[in-house]
């Protein structure tokens, strides 16, 4: 699974799913898809009303040439809300700034009313930001409902088998912040 190695080389370890879980998602979950070319790898779930992008990796040799934007535009043409998880900016890590800038440049908005905290294998908490693009104006509580579905159906798919626990119990990892 060369594609898994490529993803694991790029994404932080705590964000990577067990390769067997990813294989099960691809093989057994009708909503989950993997596309791989020389230019990119994208793994995503397509639901009736939204798309959850689990992993998006543009080949370093083709970054900055519009590959990622073309891919996102292809998803946007489906007319569904698109949700991604993005690491918070770490001023020590230039890639975190580039990732957030990439999504913002492509019309994604940070769901600033959704707190998303998960735990790694050792039980250490980490935070992720939810970014979304939508063809219609959606309130963030609706985005949170969609993210809860992604947690339940994608992150938690056979997670007890591979991790002995739910990876992202929506009731524990998602919190709506009222202004």
From TrEMBL:
SUPFAM superfamilies: Acyl-CoA N-acyltransferases (Nat). GO terms for molecular function: acyltransferase activity, transferring groups other than amino-acyl groups. Residues 1-133 form the N-acetyltransferase domain. This is Acetyltransferase YjbC. It comes from Collibacillus ludicampi. It comes from the Bacteria. Pfam families: Acetyltransf_7 (PF13508). InterPro entries: Acyl_CoA_acyltransferase, GNAT_dom.
